[in-house]
Write a structure and sequence with these properties.
This protein has a two-stranded antiparallel sheet with strand order 1-2. A two-stranded antiparallel ribbon has the order 3-6. Strands 4-5 form a two-stranded antiparallel ribbon. The protein has 4 helices and 6 strands, in the order αβββααβββα. By secondary structure, the chain is mainly alpha-helical.
Length: 119
């Protein structure tokens, strides 16, 4: 799980986890979906914490990854304070149709609570 998030939270995704990547049989670069959701963001934050706890990511690396992701999330367009469900990771624009998912918002909230406790 960590390896996915290590590879799929990139500079060109503004520190946000890409939703999915298709592995190519020919060994070429994965084909990625440049979108993310609150669930993807939350799971990436917890993967960073777990990588640190396992010794795969040092404290400076953990803090740098968390700061980049959280700063980006703070800048995202919202609806009445709620993060929307899908964003383009390149432009940070919400994707259509714009909506708030209670499931994804709940997943992000739960991940943030676990992250706070783990830190």
């Amino acid at each position: 799980t960590w390896r996915y998030f290590e590879d799929m939270v990139r500079d060109d995704s503004n520190g946000l986890a890409l939703d999915n990547a298709a592995v190519r049989e020919d060994g070429g670069a994965p084909i990625v979906a440049p979108r993310t959701s609150p669930t993807n963001v939350g799971l990436a934050l917890l993967a960073d914490l777990a990588a640190h706890d396992f010794g795969w990511l040092d404290t400076d690396g953990l803090l740098a990854r968390l700061e980049k992701t959280l700063r980006t999330v703070e800048s995202l367009e919202r609806w009445k304070g709620h993060v929307l469900n899908w964003y383009d990771t390149r432009t940070l624009e919400p994707l259509e149709p714009r909506y708030v998912s209670t499931v994804d918002s709940g997943n992000l909230a739960a991940c943030l609570l676990v992250l706070a406790h783990g830190l």
